[in-house]
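User: I'm curious whether this sequence folds into something compact or stays loose and floppy. Could you predict its structure so I can see for myself?
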Amino acid sequence: MMFEKWQKLFNGRDLKDWTPKIVGSPAGVNFGDTFRVENGMISVRYDQYGGKFNERFGHLFYKTQFSHYRIRAEYRFVGQQLPDGPGWATRNSGLMLHGQTPESMTLTQDFPCSIEVQLLGGLSNGKRSTANLCTPGTNVVMKGKLFTPHCTDSSSDTFDGDQWVTCEVEVLGSESIKHFINGKLVLEYTQPQIDERDAISKSAWTPGTPKLLERGTISLQSESHPVDFRKVEILDLSRGRK
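Assistant: Here's the prediction. I'll summarize afterward.
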């Protein structure tokens, strides 16, 4: 019998192997101790921001790029958003996949060109799905057609309060990507690719990078609302592939 062997990307103790990139700061500078380890979790916090977010969007990048894998993260939203954070960023974070490197981002670039699995918490009023798709500097194919809208909702349930939610994503290189919430398939699409119309995207990857995105970085998002990640792990699916 063959057992799945998941690898921990977050060791539960420190941010070894992770690199922050926050608007206004170069890669490697963790402005305001935004990303920290507390109680065995990666906690995204803003208590050293002086009460204002000032559009300092941030991302925490893992050191290794991946191509064929399943990633699993357990997350929850806590506390209050900074008052000047944009309304859409309330209880909002994300897993950025197939992304550019933190070093290739400009000083003022807010989001890495990537495939974003958008993580949203409920607002205690109406439906608000999670594990949605957003496409900063990218496009995908959905139902056989090039899909260019920036964001599209999944079919997930709404998760209010500070409950833990498990998001899992199956990434098969440039072939297909599937989003799962608490084990349920909620969104799928194919052919993640560079948006050649996007000015930032044109400089995000090295010259000669194929339009279809076969691999890239993984990062966690900071968007003005506190969020915790207590597990980030990966299952390598590249065995047997050339």
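Summary: The chain has a mean pLDDT of 95. DSSP finds one helix and 17 strands in the chain.
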